[in-house]
């Protein structure tokens, strides 16, 4: 089975190489791994201090990784932090992360690559976050008896580990010295299938969003745009989300409501689409400094990356995008500021979304009517809004501290 798995990985590598001829992200994936071992050897000295390896698939997973890296660095300052990414969307944004000594792409998970990589960096401990399972790397780490941790993970009966063909993959989970999961259902499922070294720790993103909310950045131009208005902030929105929001403001008109849109895609064609969709009352963040009077502008388009997590402080209500596609984006950043949230119907894979809907701090919407009803309630009823806001804040407070649980376990290892 391991050879079949490796063959599949090699086929994936070939497919990415072909895609790189016409896909920018795939091209970055290939370029970033060119002469990867030579790149790493140039940076690492033979007599360097101990290394802790942290691997994240992409940017979202890295945000879950950050509080654990920071906590580990505080507890073990003598260690070098080695971070790897699978995806360019993570590497390109966080390649200069201040608490990492080395940041690289992860070489393709073949048997030879895994063995060579682990030999070169020689980690004393390895961390993987959420769903990124690379079985050749796990095999090498297991053989070398390097403590290996998985955290912020969720397991469901529908996953391939628990399918009729998944026994080999499920057994590979025993390569982890400990698996920290987000909920009781995951713990029960793992133990049922013989994975005993697991426990509930929660989601490290709670620690991360609390840190952001405590040390929040200020944006004077956004403050000037908002004025005394209440703000509907759309975070990581896609076109279906944006069309729904446009229809809402066309039917629910109020002089003291403004909209800030931080779209998931900020390439020129999508920003142009948004400018046309919202019309003359729309302004881009990159242009706002040149406009002295903003009272006639009702919609602000954020045409850069990096502001969103702090922008939620200016929101009255937050709409989180992605729920009409593969799944919703991060709602915790909004909850940490006590902002009630709305999002599309595809949220079932996200524990925090299920929780906040149940607690009545968030609304799942399926069409224009349900969006209009949810937002109208929140904007019209101060009592309902206050209750939802308090629920959001309390939920984040109740779930922080995951990073400390992980580091305490690491101390034992």
Please, could you describe this protein's structure?
It is globular, with a radius of gyration of 23 Å. The protein is α/β, with parallel strands linked by helices. Helices cover about 45% and strands about 15% of the residues. Strands 3-2-1-4-5-6-7 form a 7-stranded parallel beta sheet, sandwiched between helices. The chain has helices at about 1-20, 25-30, 35-45, 60-75, 90-95, 110-120, 135-145, 165-170, 185-190, 205-215, 220-225, 240-250, 270-280, 310, 330-335, 350-360, 370-380, 380-400, 400-410; strands at about 50-55, 80-85, 100-105, 125-130, 150-155, 180, 200, 230-235, 255-265, 280-285, 300, 315-320, 340-345, 360-365. The chain is built from 19 helices and 14 strands. The model has no long low-confidence stretch (mean pLDDT about 95).
Poorly predicted regions? none
First and last CA, distance? 30 Å
Shape: globular
Taken as a percent bin, the fraction of beta residues is 15-25%
Structural class by sheet pairing and helices: alpha/beta
Mean pLDDT: 94
> How are the strands ordered across the major sheet?
3-2-1-4-5-6-7
Radius of gyration: 23 Å
Please report the total strand number as a whole number: 14
Helix content: 40-55%
What's the structural blueprint in terms of helices and strands?
Blueprint: H1 2-19, H2 24-32, H3 36-43, E1 51-56, H4 59-75, E2 80-85, H5 88-94, E3 102-105, H6 111-121, E4 125-129, H7 135-143, E5 148-153, H8 167-172, E6 178-181, H9 184-192, E7 198-200, H10 205-214, H11 220-226, E8 230-237, H12 239-251, E9 257-263, H13 268-278, E10 282-284, E11 299-301, H14 308-311, E12 317-320, H15 332-335, E13 341-343, H16 351-358, E14 362-364, H17 368-380, H18 382-398, H19 402-412
Parallel strand pairs: 1-2, 1-4, 2-3, 4-5, 5-6, 6-7, 8-9, 8-12, 9-11, 10-11, 12-13, 13-14
Helix pairs in contact: 4-5, 4-10, 4-19, 6-7
């Amino acid at each position: 089975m391991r050879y079949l798995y490796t063959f599949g990985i090699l086929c994936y590598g070939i497919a990415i190489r072909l895609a790189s001829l016409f896909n920018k992200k795939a091209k970055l994936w290939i370029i970033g791994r060119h002469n990867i071992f030579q790149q790493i050897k140039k940076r690492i000295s033979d007599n360097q201090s101990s290394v802790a390896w942290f691997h994240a698939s992409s940017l979202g997973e890295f945000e879950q990784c950050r509080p654990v890296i920071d906590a580990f660095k505080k507890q073990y300052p003598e260690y070098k932090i080695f971070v790897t990414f699978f995806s360019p969307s993570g590497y390109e944004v966080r390649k200069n992360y201040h608490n990492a000594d080395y940041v690289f792409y992860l070489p393709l998970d073949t048997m030879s690559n895994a063995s060579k990589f682990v030999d070169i960096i020689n980690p004393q401990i390895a961390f993987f976050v959420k769903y990124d399972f690379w079985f050749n790397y796990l095999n090498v780490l297991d053989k070398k008896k390097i403590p290996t941790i998985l955290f912020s993970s969720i397991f469901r009966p529908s996953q391939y580990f628990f399918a009729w063909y998944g026994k080999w993959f499920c057994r590979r989970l025993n390569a982890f010295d400990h698996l920290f999961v987000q909920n009781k259902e995951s713990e029960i499922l793992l133990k049922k299938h013989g994975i005993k070294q697991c426990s509930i720790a929660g989601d490290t993103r709670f620690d991360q969003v609390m840190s952001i909310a405590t040390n929040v950045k200020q944006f004077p131009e956004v403050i000037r745009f908002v004025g005394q208005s209440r703000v509907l902030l759309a975070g990581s929105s896609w076109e279906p989300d944006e069309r729904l929001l446009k229809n809402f403001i066309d039917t629910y008109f109020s002089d003291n409501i403004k909209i800030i849109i931080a779209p998931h895609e900020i390439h020129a064609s999508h920003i142009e689409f948004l400018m046309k969709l919202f019309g003359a009352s729309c302004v881009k963040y990159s242009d706002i400094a040149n406009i002295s009077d903003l009272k006639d502008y009702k919609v602000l388009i954020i045409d850069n990356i990096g502001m969103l997590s702090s922008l939620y402080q200016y929101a009255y209500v937050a709409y989180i995008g992605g729920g009409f596609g593969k799944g919703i984006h991060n709602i915790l950043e909004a909850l940490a500021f006590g902002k009630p949230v709305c999002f599309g119907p595809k949220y079932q894979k996200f524990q925090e979304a299920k929780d906040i809907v149940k607690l009545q701090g968030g609304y799942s919407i399926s069409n224009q009517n349900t969006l209009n009803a949810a937002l109208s309630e929140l904007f019209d009823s101060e009592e309902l809004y206050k209750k939802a806001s308090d629920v959001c804040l309390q939920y984040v407070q109740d779930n922080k501290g995951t990073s400390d649980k992980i580091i305490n376990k690491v101390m034992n290892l």
